[in-house]
Amino acid sequence: MFLHVREARYEGGYRIWLRFNDGAEGVVDLSDCLEGEVFSPLRDLARFKAFRVDPDIETIVWENGADLAPEFLYAKMKVMA
Predict the structure, then answer these.
(1) Cβ contacts of residue 67 below 8 Å, gap of 6+?
(2) How far apart are CA 63 and CA 57, in angstroms?
(3) pLDDT, tens digit, for every residue of 17-40?
């Protein structure tokens, strides 16, 4: 099964709640992932909060071209009980 992000919402700090196409949902903390040319601008919380779920690639994206693979997000997710 290919993983796809279906829903996402900002949870505070560098945390995002996600729901995947397999029904799994939870919170991902991306505070340790914001390095490099594409991701370091997202340390600015205003920019970080401006993500969206792209309907074509079915993951979260930012205006500066940054995106994260659904498989990476799934692996980092803390599943909600």
Answers:
(1) 54, 57, 59, 60, 61
(2) 14
(3) 999 999 999 999 999 999 999 999
What type of residue sits at position 12?
Answer: G
Nearest to 4 by CA among 39, 55, 65: 55
CATH of the domain at 53: 3.30.2020.10
Q: Which domain holds residue 37?
A: 5-79
Cβ atoms of 66 and 42 within 8 Å: the answer is yes
* Number of domains forming the structure of the chain: 1
- Enter the pTM of the model: 0.92
Burial of 7 (0-12, 13-18, 19+ CB in 10 A): exposed
